[in-house]
Amino acid sequence: MDFTPNSSNETLRLKALDSYSILDTFSDRDYDNLTAIASEVCNIPISLISLVDDQRQWFKSHHGLPVDETPKEYSFCAHAIQQPDQLFVVPDARKDKRFLENPLVTGDPYIVFYAGVPLVTEEGMPLGTLCVIDKKPRRLTKNQKKALEALSNQVMKLLELRKSKYELRKANEQLEEKNKMLEGFAEVAAGDIQSPLRNIANSYATFQKEYSQQLDNAGVQLLSSMENSTAQLSSMVDGILQNAKTDYVKRREKENVSSAEIQQKLVEVYPKSGDYTIEFSFKAEELHINKGAVLQLLLNLISNAIRYSDKAVAQVEVGVREDERFYEFFVSDDGPGIDDLDYERIFEIFTVLNRVDRYGEYGVGLGLANAKKLVEESGGDITVDSELGKGTIFTFSLPK
């Protein structure tokens, strides 16, 4: 492939170089080590990692030469990249008609010998060279040429690694921005949907109170069906909103929290009641956790334990213990239990074993799916153990 300055491929080459976002970056020890090795192996005082831009050649590393760049029109490397598949050697620039009047030859740094290996992308685009320069005529041995080629491969690996990290960081930033937009949209959309749903529910209650005596059985059943559908839709909207908030909660930083503070937050949401009792068994006094994530998980599991209890008063226990690597939280109840055949299925999205809870409210199967997602994306694990007729215990672990 021809990469002369007048070639249409030059535009593609410059675009490829720009994709590495490396021009004018700070010096880097990894690159400097390679030029130092190249100089040592070839026994030549100057070694450069040169990247050929539109109007200049810029040096990512310059061993033995105290400049950062030179004009492209005087660049030996601009000639070298025209033949990207081979080592470019100039034994004596003073005798080479291409360079004998070059200011870099007739003046400082007085280049006489040059050897450069093109730095070529996987797509075949030459970005620049790894080169060695001397002020006197030289010849490289076969082993020196091989070493220079091997070092140029290492330079390209560093460039590719840097590019991959840059692209990954950029993709993560874009994903983060999209997630924030989706979270905001979900919250607004959920609010916009919940408002008319509440109006429907209120209208139903008023209509039932004022006009139920005037309806036949078919009319009453129709209204009841409307109420049930509204309740189901409302629960689904709440679940979707909770799912959207899960990603936000997951990204919060860990902080030092006392188990007493966690207990207090749970009691604020679930104060004493005739419907349930909650006992706490915290074996770890100080925790270093994502507080928002832990509270969301515990509240989710406590809510399920109370809502789906078959006892007049649900008995719930909440606790945490720790080892060297993990915190292990649990929520147990004395409810109806779960068949072991359903252990995996209950964590699947939109899976509901009991459609209506003890309060007549509808579940849509998002709570446990959200919990599993939050735990696993936080580096932990969540499990269930249950015995039909005796109760269930959910346990989730989170790394310290």
The proportion of strand residues reads 15-25%
Per DSSP, the total helix count is 9
Structural class determined from secondary elements: alpha+beta
Determine the mean pLDDT: 87
| Gyration radius over CA | 35 Å
Helix content: 40-55%
Q: Which regions have little confidence, pLDDT < 50, spanning 5+ residues?
A: none
Strand segment tally = 13
Largest beta-sheet details: 6 strands, antiparallel
Topology:
Elements: H1 9-18, H2 29-42, E1 46-52, E2 56-63, E3 69-71, H3 76-80, E4 88-90, H4 103-106, E5 113-120, E6 126-134, H5 142-211, H6 217-250, E7 255-258, H7 259-269, E8 276-282, E9 286-289, H8 291-307, E10 314-322, E11 326-333, H9 367-377, E12 381-387, E13 391-399
Parallel strand pairs: 8-10
Antiparallel strand pairs: 1-2, 1-6, 2-3, 4-5, 5-6, 7-9, 10-11, 11-13, 12-13
